[in-house]
Amino acid sequence: MRFEGQVWFRFGDRAVWDFYRFVRELASNDVSVALDWTPLPSSDEALAMATFDALDTPGGRGRFLHAMLGVVHLEGENAGSADAVAKAAGSADVPVASTESWEARSEVLAREAANLGVVDVPTMYRHGPVMRIVVNGAVLTGDVVRSAITILAALDDDGVWQLSKS
After folding, report:
1. Domain range for 138
2. SS3 at position 8
3. Selection from 24, 21, 2 nearest residue 155 by Cα
4. Which of 9, 63, 136, 147 is most exposed, with the fewest beta carbons within 10 Å of its own?
5. pLDDT, position 74
6. In a domain, 166, yes or no
7. Is residue 61 part of a domain?
8. How many CA atoms does the CB half-sphere of 155 hold within 13 Å?
9. pTM for the whole thing?
10. CATH number, domain at 31?
């Protein structure tokens, strides 16, 4: 099985953290995971997003994403804090970027998100309509592969616009 697509995210969003943990669990269950993590622009997280966006290798992006999410959601740091970004960048062994070019890049990403219909995070896109995916901790105690199959089936079925369970 291959779990792939584009995931729009913000570092500080708890639903992104829960989805990220689900994705890591998928990978540990021998699922091929190929996600293009794309920051949904936020002025509150400009430095973190600029740093992520400036990285030009999947390994660097993955390490920074992992470190930044951990710093924010495990250590309680603010995703907009320069100290949090520096800590995550140090842990991931990547440079902290300048926000100088981020403003122009964030406008491009914001237009792309709007054109796709991305309004919240985490949102996944493969083709057709995008889908916001919110999982809770229970997904990690169940069959994560079956949950991934369900997510992909809903993404691939353009007739499914919203699934919700509380």
Report:
1. 2-156
2. strand
3. 2
4. 136
5. 98
6. no
7. yes
8. 20
9. 0.93
10. 3.40.30.10
In a domain, 165, yes or no: no
Residue 52 maps to a domain: yes
Asked if 17 and 121 touch (Cβ cutoff 8 Å), the reply is: no
Would the pLDDT of 164 be above 90? Answer: no
Rounded Cα distance, 21 and 34, in Å:
15
Are residues 36 and 5 in contact, defined by beta-carbon separation less than 8 angstroms? yes
- Compute the distance between CA of residue 147 and CA of residue 21 in angstroms, rounded to an integer: 13
Burial of 75: CB neighbours in 10 Å, binned 0-12, 13-18, 19+: exposed
Per-residue pLDDT of 42-68, as tens digits, reads 999 999 999 999 999 999 999 999 999
- Nearest by Cα to 28 from 140, 122, 125, 134: 140
Angle between helices 46-54 and 82-92 (to 10 degrees): 20
As for how many domains the chain has, the answer is 1
Q: Which two tokens stand for residue 46?
A: 């400009």
In the chain, the amino acid numbered 76 is: G
Range of lowest pLDDT (2-16, 132-146, 149-163): 149-163
Which pLDDT does position 146 carry in this prediction? 95
pLDDT of residue 166 exceeding 70, the answer is no
